Amino acid sequence: MLSTLITRATEGEQFGGLVPHLVDGGLSILQYADDTILFMESDLEQAGNLKLILGAFEKLSGLKINFHKSVFFCFGNAKDRAQECVQLFCCKEGSFPFTYLGIPMSTHRISNKDWRHVEERVQKKLGSWKGKLLFIGGRLVLLDSVLSSLPMFMLSFFRIPKGVLKKLDYYRSRFFWQSDGHKKSTDWQGGVSCASQKVWVDWGL
Fold first, then answer.
1. DSSP state, 158?
2. Cβ contacts of residue 203 below 8 Å, gap of 6+?
3. Over the stretch 138-186, which tens digit does the pLDDT of each residue have?
4. Which of 42, 64, 69, 149 has the highest CB neighbour count under 10 A?
5. 3-state secondary structure of 199
6. Residue 149 forms beta bridges with which residues?
């Protein structure tokens, strides 16, 4: 219902979204589970219209919007009117960078430190595995089905830095070859040479 109200307001030019050159009509609303993100230009009149739309949604649906738990983010020239909008919506002002659904959000390019939580998850997972008690096939299955899938969520949004990729490949290689006396040459982007066969374990890059 909220999405329909926003769409109708956009069509009536009471409310405008962002990047209309990329999204037909502009990007105004995104919803995932119980989270809703609203996008708008820096315009106090449109902000007032949006507040009226949210009030109409509450009346029609019987639901209550908790503005005190909502966060208002501004960037660019919109920062000059941030306090006025915060008072209008009775919410708090957020700041960049922040994390949403496990993804770092920033007005700048993310750095290697934003990948640190991925490295920590890999190390934590490896710390609970007893690789020396597993055959080489068991280690390969764990790497392919579990460890290699950990960074996939971040990889679906951002290109992984070479330094981070090198670290992750080092962790995988160390786990895979531990306690093997006949270690073969390793090329994780081309495959892993195991005895007389070649087994592929890559990141899907």
1. S
2. 148, 151, 155, 160, 165, 168
3. 888 888 888 888 888 888 889 888 889 898 888 888 888 875 444 444 4
4. 42
5. strand
6. none
Helix (H) or strand (E) holding 100: strand 98-100
The residue count for the chain: 205
- Residues 80 and 88: their CA atoms lie apart, in Å, by 15
CA torsion sign for 172, 176, 179, 181 is: negative
What's the pLDDT tens digit per position in 84-112?
A: 888 999 999 998 888 888 888 888 888 88
pTM passes above 0.90: no
User: Are 104 and 114 contacting, i.e. CB atoms less than 8 angstroms apart?
Assistant: yes
Query: Taking the CB of residue 188, how many other CB atoms lie within 10 A of it?
Result: 20
92 DSSP β-pair partners: 71
CB of 147 closer than 8 Å to CB of 126 = yes
- DSSP code for 40: -
Distances (CA, A) of 74 to 10, 83, 91, 115: 20, 10, 13, 25
Best CA proximity match to 74, nearest among 88, 57, 53, 54: 88
